[in-house]
Amino acid sequence: MDTLLSPLAALGRATLSLLAAIGSVAIFAADAVSQILRPPLYVREFGTALLTIGWFSLPVVALTTLFTGGALALQIYAGGARFNAEAVVPQIVAIGMVRELGPVLTGLMVSGRVASAIAAELGTMKVTEQIDALTTLSTNPMKYLAAPRILAATLALPLLAGVGDVIGIMGGYLVGTSRLDFNAATYLTNTAQFLVAGDVVSGLVKAAVFGFIVALMGCYHGMNSGRGAEGVGRATTNAVVSSSVMILASNYVLTELFFSA
After folding, report:
1. pLDDT tens per residue, range 144-201
2. For residues 69 and 67, what is the distance between their CA atoms, to the nearest angstrom?
């Protein structure tokens, strides 16, 4: 009997642990949002986070989207050649970058760079008892540490995604005109005529949600870090993994909401 019940018991423990983790993250997120909506806002912390998350992430986002746009153009041309549909390269590159690849790649790259940094920073602060010191000084750690970073990431990611969209489309343009013999004016005209406002807005909304997720998971795992260097390292890894998985999952949900009809 014990042999039969052991797998069920293990499954039950895993399920309860998952539900507890989801509840803990949801409570943390609700607390963070409430702190963002209530004054005061620590402007210096917000400005530093905005600079770190936005401006300093621009090079890696630009390189990623540039080469992705170029590779996408090559793949679409090669696939379209099987059906005599090579002319759709500009349109598909544009819609693919703006709707999906731009925001998702931006979110994932910023997750690897920012979520890990936030988790390591806050985890180290917890290990060295700096977070406890803030509480002793009557400063709410959620208000001072988490709220500015989450707000900054939520605002910075749409800007980064917008820049990434333009650079990705430019990467497709460069490959299309230099390697695939597209006329430059025709390529740009097809791109501009094919995109609609809904495509751009959906991508920017996705990026904002991804930014919220990246900073939220970085702050959550950092402020709940275990003690010692091992705890900080585990928090950093968990922040990147959880934020990346949540970005991909939320991307599907948002795509379903925007384009399921």
Report:
1. 888 999 999 999 999 999 999 999 999 999 988 888 888 888 888 888 888 888 889 9
2. 5
- What are the tokens at 203? 């991508």
Amino acid at 140: N
In whole angstroms, give the CA distance from residue 74 to residue 187: 14
CB atoms within 10 A of CB 138: 6
Share of the chain above pLDDT 70, in %: 98
Please enumerate in sequence order all residues whose Cβ is within 8 A of that of 38, keeping only pairs 6 or more positions apart, or say none. Answer: 143
Q: How far apart are CA 52 and CA 178, in angstroms?
A: 35
What are the Cα distances from residue 159, in Å, to 43, 57, 164, 174, 206?
A: 19, 11, 9, 23, 12
pLDDT category of residue 204 using cuts at 50, 70 and 90: very high
Alpha-carbon Rg for the chain, nearest whole angstrom, is: 22
* Residue 200 · residue 103 · CB < 8 Å: no
End-to-end distance of the chain based on CA atoms, in angstroms? 50
Percent helix, strand and coil across the chain, each to the nearest 5: 90, 0, 10
**What are the residues whose beta carbons fall under 8 Å from the beta carbon of 154, sequence distance 6 or more?**
208, 211, 212, 215
Q: How far apart are CA 198 and CA 212, in angstroms?
A: 21
Task: Please check the confidence at residue 4 and state whether its pLDDT lies above 70.
Answer: no
User: Are the C-beta atoms of residues 110 and 157 closer than 8 Å to each other?
Assistant: yes
